[in-house]
Model the fold of this input.
Amino acid sequence: MVETSDIRVVRCGGSKVNLTPPIISSDSRFVLCTSGDLVKVYSTRTEEWLHSLQGHTNQVTGITLNPANHLQVYSCSVDGTVKLWDFIDGILIKVQLVFSDCANLEVSKNKLCFQLVSVHLPKSAEQEVEAKEMSAVSSHISKNPSCTAFGRGGEYIAFARHLQLNVYFFRKQKTYSFSLKATDKKGAKNAFTCIACHPTDDCIATGHEDGKIRLWRNFIHKKEYTYSTQHWHHNAVNTLCFTPEGTHLLSGGIESVLVQWQYGADNRKEFLPRLGGSILHISASSDGQLFCTSHSDNKITVIESSFKVCGVIQGLVKDAVLTDLMIDPRSKALVLNGKPGHLQFYSLLRDKHLYNLDIVQQEYIYEAGLDQFEVVKAAFDIKGSWLATVEERGKKSSDLEFFLKLWAFDERTQSFVLNTTITAAHTDRIISMCFSSSEETTMLVTAAEDSQFKAWCQGADADTQQDQNFWSCDFVGSYHKLNPTNCSFSADSSLLAVSFQEVITIWSPDTWEMLTTLCQPPGVIRDLCFGRLSCSKYLLGTTTKNLLCCWNLLTCELEWSTSVDVSKLQPDPFSENVAAFSYQSKHTDLFVFKPSEPRPLFTNKNVCSEKVHRAVFVPREEPLNSCDESTQWLNRSQLYFLTQNMDLLTFSTATEEDRMLSSSKQLVIDDSVAVTPFYLLLGKHRQQQQKLNTQSHPLLHTPAHVLPAASVLCSMFVNSFLISNTGVQQDPLRYFVHIWLT
Amino acid sequence: MGEFKVHRVRFFDYMPSGIRALAFNRDIERIAVARMDGSVEVFHCSDRFFQEKIIPGREQCGIEGLSWVGERLFSAGLNGGITEYDLTNQKVKYTVDAYGGPIWTIAGNQQGTHLAVGCEDGTVKLFEVNEDKIQFERNLDRQKSRIISLSWHPSGSKIAAGMMDMIQIFNVETGHSVHRLLADRGVGTSRSKECVVWSVVYLSDGTIISGDSVGMVKLWDDQTGTLIKSHNVTKCDVLALSVSQNEDSLVAGTSEGTVVQFQFISMVLGKDDKEWVRTRTFKNHTHDIRAVAEITTAVVSGGMDAQLVVRPLLDKVEVRSAASALRKIHFPHRRLVSCARKSGLMLFQYPGHLELWRLGESEGKGEDDIHLFVKRNPEKLLHLKVKGEDHIRCSAVSPCGEWIVYSTASSLRLYRLHCDNNNVSITKVLQISTELSANQLCFSSDSSHLFSASTQSSVHLVSLSQSGCKFVGTLKPKSGERTIGIRESSKIIPASEDGKWLASANSDHEVHIYNLQTRKAHCTVPVYSSAVTAMGIHPTTNCLFMMYADQQMCEYSIEQKQYTDWSRMVQRKGLHRFWMERDTPCLNVMFNPQHPSHVILHDTYMLCIIDQSLPLPDDKTQFYNQLTLKSLPEEQRKSHSHAFKVCKTFKDILCVELMSDQSLVVVERPLEDVASQLPAPIKQKKFAT
Done:
């Protein structure tokens, strides 16, 4: 399928860290979470990403600490394996192959329904073992892993599905089930949403769709079981967690409030509000000192037991991306919708969230069904000193409300500061927006559904004699009362192309004179872009009638056109290349071509199975110098794209991956200090110094008369300067062999 | 089916009185209920909570506590007296003054030897229960503040007393205080308010459980006198506590109207160390819950909103059935309205007065087909206040509308009504004291005789005439095999239309039939396990139709002294599931002279006409088939119809009567109207308001 073997699509940074509950290591120093096919290890104190456990070939679906060794962690993945890792060193210790796909450590997925099986992990010295002993506990369980929990000391397992709670006792091999009515007179929705078991008492806490929490007891009786009900959450309880001592119960839901219930005195509860997105998982460290909550906005919050937030690990937020993918020209960070009402700046290189820029500047209320302001459009100018944003609300209702905001980059605070807010930029929704790309004057063009496009300039308003220059409207253009669909500046900003339905108009921004119209193809123009560098005489456009057209602006004629359903056309600002994603019969193909050449540079069939609407070229820090023709287009920049499932994917070459792998091997292991990049720089250096000092010390500071003969000391002294043999052990590979032999 | 003109009467402003105390007797399965107006009712727990006995109250007689000692029932109130009730004759037996000021609580020990009362003056007084009276024994150590609640240790050696801000434990033998447990006051502004220990429960393992005005349920250890655990149940008061017999379940009633259950559960399954854990919360009341009783299979609660709620504990119920369903008892299980069938008058019985109303008249058709134009509004003719302090026990108006009779615990009064045009006047005809005080009153259909059901299953006959009235005689059941033992007093007496027969039922479930011409007992209907709730004698066939508390029905031919064929068929085929699942008893049996095969019944929620000529429904047939029948063509209706025609148009029915002009009087008392007249409940924050 893939034509070129050395370029492959990889799931890159910014995977979901909130898919499974994070784990806090028993010494509270590390937080482990799943992220795509990796398990990432973060430091709880610095929130820094330390390293990742790499080895699964598909989505990791569950992690849990090895109860026998608190320095090891089990992980399971859709690839059908359960792996045991040393998470401090990042070393794979053991692989268990389980015949079907694992969806959770206790949960395995069968073709249609989810089955709960208990897997007996055989004790074996071999690295790869196949677990054969398996017993099905239940053939019908909820696919939500938080609906399954182990009870006191692993004596039983509780799992719920819809309206039924089941408790399976391993020793007796007996299942007790209890069901609730779907609704009662008050219309309560009783479906189970999550389960937690008390660590020492036989008490099962269950969360329900209507926000109730029930505490079940006496569940070895068919009839005399009993439960008490608590109600605080106004919406479904997403997660429940008992603290390790069992004194408190933590719960969270869409309200993004962490609630701590006192076990036994249920009326007493504490709240930690405003945590961000809705809470998806809660986990507690084994000493009960730290809690971790993972949120729907791809965030892990580390909370002290005194209910103080002490760390936030923010992943890339991809919940509702309405803006295009953009690159901040200054920080080279990826910019897109973040938290509701914010733009997020995300460093793809370090896979780290940089900061959020509050655009809407209004409190967001976490409740379903509210119509709140959302950032729908954003654009940077070429230097990154201006940012334009459009926020709107009222998409469903008829009364649309939107603001156009312009933000200036403040050198002093190193962030964007609001410069101008335009309340009624257009009378209808803004469709497209772009900055002129010239260095001298910045100009913003907005095209809206009120069949107008407007050009905005800074400081044109003479009335305001102030230091600051505000933006105001410079020109209003329209064409035959048609609704514009797209606008684009040429690379040197000498031309502006605005498409009105099926017609492309070319304007000169200097004189605001319409130069020409291009009206060739059938179908409404969907995407429009100018060629760059040597191809700047070309204008590319795609239509809804599945045509990709290329006009020559010198001749004003159609140079070529081809029938392909392009869902996204993305020019590379650093080369002539243009990437086109085309969606055909349930898979997306990528074509990279130069407008001047009819033959594509690179084609990749079946990039992914969903439609691609957002893509961006990200400049590389240091260019690759690959000579291979098919990989040349990746030399200066890298193409990232977002699928409809909100997976951020990119293309990487084989050489790149090799380099990555070699760099990761440089990680040297020390179990006393968290391995941060800073430590790698400094700590190792310091350690060597220390070693030298301690060995020379006794010789120099002991009185001569108590020292042994110099001949005895000599060999010791010389030996101490030799590089120690034990250094070899620090090689992760050797260390690795050592472990599995014992 | 026929058409009826229906007078829907909603101007009977009956207000049930709030429930103040509950006492459950496990041995005889009866629960006694004391209301705010001083009346005491006895419900039969295993007979669908049928209200067997009502002892009307008196003015200025507030009952604060109820206690069973064996099968004897005692109450104590703020008037400072302890009262024993004569349950067979449904009246007060005697009252003993405790000389300690108002009494707040009464508790009998499990051995049945002593009663303890807590008084305003701070004393706990012990009374010895003798064969026929109670005798003051002694005071326990006097305390500074009033005694609010009391509980005996099951062994009878200790008493826990709840007071203001503390609980005292007394040794019964020495009479001295053993421990003083201090209850914390609330925080904040309520700091200055005293903490009232509203209720205490002493368990056999030495645990004392208290409910107080701070909203806490606290568990104490009586050996060390220390607090073991406290549960914050509510922001308001915990007013009542009750523990099950095997001490594994405790219920607490709060002033928010919730009942909170605690269970004694082992925290680790299979192990013995048990703890009291708060489990379920029931919210069936709108107002303060003043009394709760945990009767193992259910939780019974009552309070200011005057309804008795029976919430089943399904985990303790063996078989789920209609008998173990949630039950709310709003109205008394007997009639408070009597109608003069021939003259269109209605007599409403309030605790302290009677009201006589004349029904309105209607004419032609109104705006739509259903409603009729009202020509004359109903008018109130009479407001008759009761002489003396006793409340009315029963009342009746004669079918001709000329006689009104009512009875209190102490006397029976008969009045003659003179109605000329707009002038209404009454003259007292008869006043009989104690001897003839009636449990139920009834006139013969030609208004020539008054029947008064009295003690020992006897019925007194009074003949009425223009000149005056005369006591004629007493009907007594055949003295035979059952001469020994006290007979329960009769309560339901219908007389046949032709004046030949009279039937009376008593709380022993016996039904006696008398021949009025010979004034002799005729026969006795075989005794059934459930109580009779309504009876009627058919005007043409002279069959006695009986409704029982468990929703069974029987038809007994008086002349042949045996059950009729129809009745046997009903017993053989069984009644429909939906009929058996109704939770209120039938209160009246009527016959339609135009359709001899029709029997008209009603309970609180429905009106039913049984057509004895149609086949009985079995469990597969659609029971409520009125709508289906309407949609069917005429010829198919016959094959789909069955004997039960249930009408649910009317709600909260107090009385239905068929007048002689073929119109129906339906007296309704909508529960919303009752609720609107209650005092405002405790204000509670409701989410999203």
Observations:
- The interface with chain B takes residues 152, 200-203, 217-221, 223-229, 234, 264-268 of chain A (CB under 8 Å).
- The CA atoms of residues 120 and 577 of chain A lie 54 Å apart.
